[in-house]
Amino acid sequence: MSSHNLTSKRLTDLGLGIFNEFWDGVHPHYLPFLNLHDSNESNWNLTISIQRLNTIVEKHSEQSVQEGIRHLLTHPDWRPHLVACLVLLRLSPQARSTLLDLFWERLSLGSWVSPQISVAVSLVDRNFKMKGEKILSDGLAMNDPSLLAQDHHALPGPRRPYPPEGKTKAALEFLVHNVINDTSDNDAGGLHARDWKQTLLKLIDSKRIVSCEILQGTA
């Protein structure tokens, strides 16, 4: 069994509310969301992942979905964060407004998928540029209390020598200023943000990914 499948099995017991259903304990259904590309896998691919997510969201109340997003974001593992990004886009503007602070908080706590989180927030938060500018100016406090006494990268992502703040700021630099300023210590955060946003918008335009009103901006 692959390491991705093992991770999927472990995630079934994380207490993710209604989104426990997204993980079947066998296939890494979160993985296609990492770059939003299709694969040749017959049991898990982007189409299947989108369908699984749609089924969960459509059969539960918006309030339950909001609570589920809180579970996804408060866990330090990056895989639930990725799922939360796609769910956020489906919510009404009113529901989104109650959750935006949690997404910004997740960025401040650290996540290996900070570019994807940044893109999702940029499409729904009308104050994104102002908040992004503040982070670029003042920095972030990467201080997740649940990661104390353990490797900071153990759950947010694979072991890397770079500071997670650098990846987040590189993503924001692109999304706020439309500039890619990637270096050896930020894990190509700007490039990840650009590519994920471009692919996401194409999927939304083709209606493969369902989204409520979004702010496309110029980046």
Describe this structure in words.
With 219 residues, this protein is mainly alpha-helical. Helices cover 54% and strands 0% of the residues. Helix 4 packs antiparallel against helix 5, helix 7 runs antiparallel to helix 8 (114-122) and helix 8 crosses helix 11 (189-205). The model is unreliable at 144-154 and 158-162 (pLDDT under 50).
Largest sheet entry: none
Number of DSSP E strands: 0
Poorly predicted runs are 144-154, 158-162
Let me know the average pLDDT: 87
SSE order: HHHHHHHHHHH
Return Rg in Å. Answer: 16 Å
Structural class: mainly alpha
* Distance between the ends: 40 Å
Principal-axis shape: globular
Could you give a quick summary of the protein structure above?
With 219 residues, the protein is an all-alpha fold. Helix content is 54%, strand content 0%. The longest helix is centred in the C-terminal third of the chain and has 17 residues.
